[in-house]
Amino acid sequence: MAVLKSEELRFSQGRFQLDDINIEFPEGKMTAIVGPNGSGKSTLLKLFARLLKADNGLVTLDNQPIHKYKRKEYSQKIAMLPQAKEVLPSITVKELVGYGRVPFQRLTGAASEEDKEIIAWAITETGLEHMADRMVGHLSGGELQRARIAMALAQKTTVLLLDEPTTFLDITHQLELMKILSRINKTYQITVIMVLHELQYAGAYSDNLIVMKRGEIYQTGKPQAILTAQLLKEVYEIDALIKFENNYPIIIPKYEN
User: Fold this and answer.
1) Which of 38, 85, 89, 128 is deepest in the core (most CB within 10 A)?
2) Where is the ABC transporter domain (predicted)?
3) What is the pTM of this model?
């Protein structure tokens, strides 16, 4: 069953445009959107998050057009974590994660007991319980990204959108983050949709791949079925060997002497 889907979706901004995007995201699965810079990956995610408005077409969440949801109601169903950006350094991890509960709070903004329990849960799930009271400005890049993930988790939505969550992280923190997302997906059946540049992680951790090129969907399917040398050549314009070992793709570019 598709929890989120688009039909004939079109969007243009300046010289860039998305053309006839027809895709479905299966419920409870991890889907990675990959493709070269400028192919429309982040734009597509913003359309699903209602940060941008499509020119034509339809996007549905749980079989209901997304424009029919009230803003607060939509925020209770779908969480969007944009690309890494600065956050207030003078707040604690717990306070940052608490922002994820804003869509559920009343006008007073006071956290309920349920809010506090969910904040604690999100902090624990991302392995930050020992630094819940630490100032955000004192976190490493990997710790900060985990705190941002915890903030999105605290929304307690059924769908989580992530725009380049591994960008600016070293390989250790990238792997750590992907393992956290994979575990959360499998444990709680949260539908995870993420834009990634790293084909290795997209192939190893996602159930489905969406490959984009120049504002269009080039191919969709299981990673092992579509991650091929031909795809790398046609989409990324590189000659490379690719093979899978234990479901992990290994990509070796060909070099000319």
Assistant:
1) 128
2) 3-239
3) 0.93
